[in-house]
Amino acid sequence: MYFFLKEPNGDKITPIYLIFHLKTQKKNFKYSTGQMIHPDNWNGKSRTPLAKRGAGGAELKHLSSILSMYSDFLDEKIKEFEKLNTPLTREILKQLFDEKFKYKVVKGDCRFLTGVIQDFIDVKNKSKGQSESWNKKYNNLKNKIIAFEEKKRKKIEFTAITQDWIGELCGFLRIIDVKPFHP
User: Fold this and answer.
1) Which residues, other chains included, contact 6 with Cβ-Cβ below 8 Å and sequence gap of 6+?
2) How far apart are CA 98 and CA 31, in angstroms?
3) Quick one: which of 24, 120, 135 has its CA closest to 81?
4) Please, which residues bridge with residue 49 across strands?
5) What's the pLDDT score for residue 138?
6) How far apart are CA 173 and CA 144, in angstroms?
7) φ/ψ of residue 94, rounded to 5
8) Whose CA is closest to 110, among 101, 119, 102?
9) In this prediction, what percent of the chain has a pLDDT beyond 70?
10) Residue 39 · residue 50 · CB < 8 Å
11) How far apart are CA 92 and CA 82, in angstroms?
């Protein structure tokens, strides 16, 4: 495993870093996973979250799956560069990890809810690996929002979403029959 806590002996939650030693550069690649954990919930030997029961255990299991995405991606890139007989540098790894794990705003109009949803779809599709059913699900969501906008006769601004608005949308969805999106 490649994971280390920023403050392993602290008494507060601390960031989890992915650290990998690059032999060619004789330096470490250090990348923040953006995840946090209390040191009491961390197994220092295996460098993973502890396995526990109950709600806390479910959170730790979810955290483990997120960290697994990081380590799997690193392993994949290491193998890929070894096959190409190309040296892997900290700069290249940072760029690859940023492209994979950092959200980037796409050009859409993020003022409106449908623009935010479309940007989300576009970003996820650029990161590859999205299934056809995933695309259908999010395009269906976008189409339902568009139908709701047509009923209201105005575009929904992202900042206008409130608990009341969500209740109104749910009521609308219960009484209409929105056809699923099929590309």
Assistant:
1) 14, 15, 16, 17
2) 9
3) 24
4) 42
5) 86
6) 8
7) -60, -45
8) 119
9) 89
10) no
11) 14
